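Protein modeling request. Please complete all fields; requests missing the sequence field cannot be processed.
Requester role: graduate student
Desired output: 3D structure, token encoding
Chains: 1
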Amino acid sequence: MEPSSDIQAAGLEAVFAEMRPALIRRASAMGVVADAEDVVQDVWLKIRNAEGPIANPQAYLLRMVYTAVLDRRRGAKRTAARDASWQSPANLPEDGLEPADAERKLIAAQTLAEVEARLEAIGDPAAAIFRRHRIDGVTQRLLAVEFGMGLSTIEKHLRKVYAAILDLSEGRA
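Delivered output (173 residues):
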């Protein structure tokens, strides 16, 4: 009679618990000293879903650590390559900005004009508070002091502007 997969999984988990220090040493020896615990934790999560009989659980676990380290290295290389290509000056025009096609420029100009019109319709102080908060990056608390208003009044003005802009964007959809 063959043991159930639950018993087999429990056996693999017991072997893992016994081998954990050796698995951490293996990952460290492969060059991921700082992430060795994370690699072994990844292996633990994978063996929780393991199915079927495993003839040599020790070799199986060592191979899983090896594979997890390789996966981590590949991921780090992909991340580094992606970051380097994003930051590479060769990928940017001379002014540092990506060129926008004429249609995108036109849509952006129209949208900006519509937002400006909404802000003018709302009037001050809501428009001024919005500009100081969103464009200049001034906190709501400092705006309350600057405009001589309570924090809840500043929030009320910002909600009013946000609702108008959201109404504008929903009108496009």
